[in-house]
C-alpha cells in the first residue's frame, strides 16, 4: 500500500465527488453537491485542499481523504475521509491518516472517545479540549503547542455556496454535471 496525492483534475474531481457522496449519503439532499461545489470552486482554486488516496499494490483506491490547510498554512485537517474497501474490520482511512501523520503536520477533531481512540492509533498523540465537547488532536509534526497556537482550518461556507448556486442556475447545472460525471467516472485505479 502507498499514499498518493490525486493531482489529475478529472480524477481529483471524481475522488471529491465520491468523498462527498459517501460521507453525506443519499439522504443528505443537496449537501454532497454543495460541499463538492465549495471545495472545487474555492479550496481547490486557492490550492488550499488536497485529495489523497491510499492505494493497494495494483493502484486500486482503498481510502480517500480531503485535507484542508489551516489559515496560517502550518498544518492540515482531514475535512472528509472515507473507506472504499474495509475487509476484516480494518479501516483503510485510518491507515491513510496514520501514513500522513508520520509525514505531515495534522490536526483532527474527535467528537467522542471512540473517534479519539481511532485517531490515537493512527498517530495523533496530543489532545486539547475544544469548543462544543470536541477534542482537538495534533500529531508530533504539528508546530502548535496549545489551543492558542492553533490556526483554524479553512472551510467552505455552505450558505454562501447555496446562495451563489441559487443566483446562477447555469453554475448550479455545471457543478451538478461535474458531480454526476465524477461519480460515474470514479477511477478503478489511481
Name the features.
alpha+beta; 39% helix; four-stranded antiparallel beta sheet; 190 residues; 7 strands
Question: What this model shows, in words?
Answer:
With 190 residues, this protein is of the alpha+beta class. The chain has six helices and seven strands, in the order βααβββαβαββαα. The protein has helices at 9-24, 31-43, 92-101, 113-121, 158-167, 169-184, and strands at residues 2-5, 49-55, 61-69, 76-83, 107-110, 126-129, 135-138. It has a four-stranded antiparallel sheet, sandwiched between helices. Strands 5-7-6 form a three-stranded antiparallel sheet, with helices on one face. A hairpin with a 6-residue loop joins β3 (61-69) and β4 (76-83). α1 packs across α6. The longest helix has 16 residues, at 9-24. The protein is globular.
Quick overview of this protein structure:
The chain has helices at residues 9-24, 31-43, 92-101, 113-121, 158-167, 169-184; strands spanning 2-5, 49-55, 61-69, 76-83, 107-110, 126-129, 135-138.
Major sheet strand order: 1-2-3-4
List how many beta strands DSSP finds: 7
Q: What sort of overall outline do the alpha carbons produce when their principal axes are compared?
A: globular
Class inferred from helices and paired strands: alpha+beta
Distance between the termini: 12 Å
Percentage of residues in DSSP E strands: 15-25%
Please estimate the helix content: 25-40%
> Uncertain spans, ≥5 residues at pLDDT below 50?
none
Helices and strands, in order, run as EHHEEEHEHEEHH
Mean pLDDT: 94
SS summary, helix count? 6
> Quaternary state, please?
single chain
Q: What Rg, in angstroms, do the CA atoms define?
A: 17 Å
Largest sheet properties: 4 strands, antiparallel
Amino acid at each position: 500500500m502507498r499514499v498518493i496525492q490525486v493531482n489529475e483534475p478529472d480524477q481529483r474531481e471524481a475522488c471529491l465527488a465520491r468523498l462527498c457522496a459517501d460521507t453525506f449519503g443519499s439522504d443528505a439532499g443537496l449537501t454532497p453537491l454543495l460541499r463538492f461545489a465549495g471545495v472545487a470552486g474555492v479550496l481547490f482554486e486557492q490550492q488550499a485542499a488536497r485529495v489523497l488516496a491510499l492505494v493497494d499494490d495494483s493502484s486500486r483506491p482503498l481510502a480517500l481523504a480531503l485535507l484542508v490547510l489551516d489559515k496560517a498554512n502550518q498544518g492540515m485537517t482531514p475535512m472528509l475521509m472515507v473507506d472504499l474497501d474495509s475487509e476484516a474490520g480494518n479501516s483503510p482511512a485510518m491507515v491513510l491518516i496514520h501514513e500522513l501523520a508520520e509525514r505531515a503536520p495534522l490536526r483532527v477533531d474527535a467528537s467522542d472517545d471512540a473517534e479519539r481512540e481511532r485517531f490515537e492509533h493512527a498517530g495523533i498523540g496530543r489532545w486539547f479540549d475544544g469548543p462544543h465537547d470536541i477534542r482537538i488532536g495534533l500529531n508530533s509534526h504539528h508546530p502548535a503547542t496549545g489551543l492558542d497556537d492553533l490556526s483554524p482550518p479553512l472551510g467552505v461556507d455552505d450558505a454562501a455556496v447555496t446562495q451563489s448556486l441559487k443566483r446562477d442556475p447555469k453554475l448550479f447545472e455545471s457543478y451538478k454535471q461535474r458531480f454526476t460525471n465524477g461519480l460515474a467516472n470514479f477511477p478503478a485505479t489511481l
